[in-house]
Each structure stands twice: as C-alpha cells, then as structure tokens.
Amino acid sequence: MARLSWSNPSVRSAAYQAMAVAAVAAVAWFLVSNTLANLAARNIASGFGFLGREAGFAIGESPIAYEPQDTYGRALLVGLLNTLRVAAVGIVLATVLGTLMGIARLSRNWPVARLAAAYVELMRNTPLLLQLFLWYALITETLPPARQAIQLLPGIFVSNRGIKLPLPADSLGFDLAGLGLLLAAALSLLLAHLARRKRHSGGQARPLGWTSAGLLVGLPLAGWLAGGAPTAFDVPRLQGFGFVGGTTLTPEYTALLFGLVIYTGAFIAEVVRAGIQSVDRGQWEAAESLGLPRRAVLRQVVLPQALRVIIPPLTSQYLNLTKNSSLAVAIGYPDIVSIANTTLNQTGQAIEGVLIIMAVYLAISLTISVLINFYNRRMAFVERQ
C-alpha cells in the first residue's frame, strides 16, 4: 500500500492536480457569479429564452424558408446552414486546387512551377480579409448590371448581382437521379475500401476506375429514366431590372467562397508538396525502372505514400477554412457570426450570443477532426506481426 506522505511523488502529484482543479473551479465560480450579479443589477435578462421570440429582421439569402416573423432560433439556424454551405464547398474546392498547385510546384516545366510558386507566395503572404475585400469589389464594381449581364452559357448569366444558374424543376426524376448519385458514391467508396483490404492482405485487386465511372453515370441515369426522364429546367430570365427563376450565387457568397478557396488552397499546396517530397527518391526511380510514366508513378506509387504525411496537417487547413469563414461578416454574407451579432444587438443577450457562436464552431471543428482522424487511422501503416 502506498505511503501517504508528502515525500511520495504520487501523493504530491495528486495534491497539485487537486489544487489546480480547485483553483480553476474557484475562478469559474467567481466569473459566473460576478456576471450574473452584474446582469441582475442592470435588469438584463439571461438565458436562452429569447430564441423563441420573433426575430423581426430579414436575411439576404437562406437555404430554408425564413421570414422576419420567424424566431431568433430559426434565424440562427439559417446562419448555421449558410456557414456549413460555404465551408463544405470550400473544403472540396480548396483540396482540389491545393493538390493541383502542390503538384505543379514540383513540375519539370519551368513556367508551370514558377507560376505555381508565385501563386502560393502571393496568397499565403497577404491577409485573407484584404483578399475578400478585393474579390467582392471585383464582382460588384467591375461586372455589368443585371440588364447587361454576361451570358457565359445558355441559362448562365454573370452580373454584379451574382451568378444566375438554371435549376432542375421539381420532379421525381431529378430526385431519383440525386439519390442514385449518392448511392453510386457510397458504392464506389465501399468498393475502394474492399480493394484496399485485398491489396493489404497480399491479393491483387481489379482496377476500379471504369467501375466507379459506370456507377456514377449509370445509377443517376437509371433514376432519371425511372422518374419519367424529365427535361424541364427553371431557367433564369431577365424581367424588369433583374432576373427571375433559377438560382443565384450572390456576390457575397461567391466572393467569400472564392477567397477562402484561393487562400486555403495555397496552404494546402505546400502541404501536398511537402508530402510528395517526403517520399524517398528511390520510389520514383524504382517505379520508372519498370517503365511506368511519370504521371502513373505519381498517382499509383507516390501519392498513396504521401497521403500518410499529408492528412494530419490537412486537418488543420480544413479547420482554418471553416473558422476563417467567420470573416463573412465583413462583406455582408449572413453566416452564423453575422446573424448572431444582429441577434445580440437586438436582444442584449451578448453572452448567450457569443456562447452560441463558440458552440457552433466547436461542434463543426470537432466533427471535421473526428472524420479526418478516422480516415488517417485507416491510411496509417500497420506493422505486420
């Protein structure tokens, strides 16, 4: 039995930890009690009961139905969905851009490598907020008004009011096509997982490129045909001083998304470049000695090994992109920070508003970390017994 003496290192360690916990608890109790006392002295209500009251303000863009008569809770939900919308799309596009730029920096083509390096250095060394102001000004100041909109393709118009896109009409066929696409993506991931397990066990897996392509094309097409093969689209058309119909990528959303993708893509490019360079040069030489072209060596030999180095720092870049989306308030995009600021200004519930913002970003960051860490564990080297 351990001797209860101060000279015992275990006893001292437990005592120091208990004192540290007590000190933190005392500070927390002081801050909370002092805050509640000050709020009561100023007749300021506390709590989250305001979430059920009428908001009374409009929101510029919302992925769900919202009216000023709705509650503050629904307004904050709109802000959350707007944040998730820009973060999810931004992560995908920044990953693609960063991967391409990281590979381009290692290209043997001198102009390609130098241009990629110039992009990385320029974007990494200028503030993101300044870049957002630049993209927003370019969209709103240099593009023509709606009546003189530039038609890029049939049904696609660009103006200082954003990008107008055609939208599939509400029909069963398009719904089934969307479900087919999701099912095809899930099956492709499952087949890739089974093929990877077979390779790790010493077997030879069949190439899945054509199989995945067939699923991604065939299942949505089958759903579309099963739903009656609809062809109707809600195409935007000019009416009065603006467009009606279709869907709109607003200048605020477009500038924020473009800025986040361009900025974060530069950091991801350096992560990808470092990961590729971490692979021993002998791997390149051994693969090229077998007659594989350089592109195949990169795709089949180098990148699978580099992923184990790339994924951990890539997680940080995804988290940075998500948290940097809070700068949307500077250009008027109604994300969770913007709507929470409006809410706390109207209700005076500043502490609750800040807590809601913190909880949202904490939940999103933890979710991203869990998903990427799970994938990282699947990609990690497993020592054979």
From TrEMBL:
Q: Name one GO cellular component term.
A: ATP-binding cassette (ABC) transporter complex
Localization of this protein: Cell inner membrane; Cell membrane
Recorded hits in Gene3D superfamilies, A to Z, give:
MetI-like
Q: Which coarse location class describes where this protein primarily resides? A: membrane
GO terms, biological process: amino acid transport
Which UniProt key words apply to this protein? Amino-acid transport, Cell membrane, Membrane, Transmembrane, Transmembrane helix, Transport
State the Gene Ontology terms under molecular function: transmembrane transporter activity
Domain ABC transmembrane type-1, first and last residues per copy: 80-372
Membrane-spanning residues = 84-104, 176-195, 207-233, 253-272, 354-375
Which superkingdom is the protein from?
A: Bacteria
Indicate how the chain sits in the lipid bilayer: Multi-pass membrane protein
Family assignment from sequence similarity? Belongs to the binding-protein-dependent transport system permease family. HisMQ subfamily.
Protein name stated in the entry: Putative glutamine ABC transporter permease protein GlnM
Q: Which gene encodes it?
A: glnM_1
